Protein: L-glyceraldehyde 3-phosphate reductase
Organism: Methanobrevibacter filiformis
Amino acid sequence: MQYKEIKKTGDKLSILGYGCMRYPRKNGRIDYERTENQIITAIENGVNYFDTAHMYPGSEETLGKILAKGYREKVKIATKLPIMNINTKEKMDQTFETELERLQTNYIDYYMLHDLTYSEWKHQQSIGVLSFIEDEKKKGRIINIGFSYHGNIINFKKIIEEYDWDFVMLQYNYLDEYYQAGKEGLEYASAQGLGILIMEPLREGMIINKLPNEASKLIENFKIKRTPAEWALRWLWNNPHVDVVISGMSREEDIEENVRIANDVKVNSLTEDEEKLIDNLKEEFKKSIKIDCTACGYCLPCPKGVDIPLAFSALNDKSIFRDIKTTVMYLITTYPNSSASNCTKCGKCEPKCPQHLDIMNNLEEVDSSFEKWYYKILCKIVKAIMFR
Ligand code: SF4
Ligand code: SF4
């Protein structure tokens, strides 16, 4: 494993971080035994940064239970304050206590304000977040403080200027170079000496699972044989400003592949041809993606039951793959309660979207694309065939 020293904190972190959002599951629950094996394998292979959050169901408890078996001091734990649910200083304190308890630890190495926006930054200050951070830092229960971010570059710079942060976590991958804080934000934060942690390196799996056909052909025909995930990770680690790439590994083969690449990759090592390949992949994606939804689900729940990320994913799938399967899947999974046409334009979802998507108008497009006059009839036929 290769390590990078974070200027601001002095820690040597593995360039591969373990994202604890998607543990393997069995019968709808976290598969504890498999998760434990995976986490121990990652530690044995040198991974020393584990990223969880209060909001990931069962994640902190599971990680805490595993690390308590003699691994706590070998790794850095990162977790997050769910500021979207915090309205008082008391709630802040209680939530932090719960996190320490769940993680079976007395301190958090990298603590973040989760999904910070500029308005939320102001709100959290008004209810005492600064004294919370300072007190916990003094007590040694928060070692380093940062924030995770999905907003625009202007507010990103403002937030950085207004506090002495130790690190930031940004959404970044080859599709997001000029999106959200993007490349400019990455370079700006790095210039201040902050640790740069990258989330969504594969854009919620889109870079591997929803590769346009032409992009797949470009990868298959390239002189060096690598998977789409490997190209995406190598592109990130090629960047000297990137410190840790958090990968949500849920399969044994993901860990094996990611560790192999993290052992081998070098900064500024992509050749001109390799960079050109990635530029071409970006172009293919741009041709096909209709809506830049990352399926984070922050817009949910919708009072009318609309499954917004699923609706956008279906529209993107239809645009990329152009097959009937997408329409059939959309019909089966949304009819009748969570269809896009159930939207009454109440507007509750849009302010919650970190990607600032025009959700209501985009849902209209989903509606007109999938829910034509034959929608209900087709749906009944499909369901009758599938569930007879
Ligand atoms: S605007 Fe539509 S999709 Fe959004 S919360 Fe309201 S009903 Fe649901
Ligand atoms: S619409 Fe926005 S908030 Fe909802 S899942 Fe997509 S990106 Fe996330």
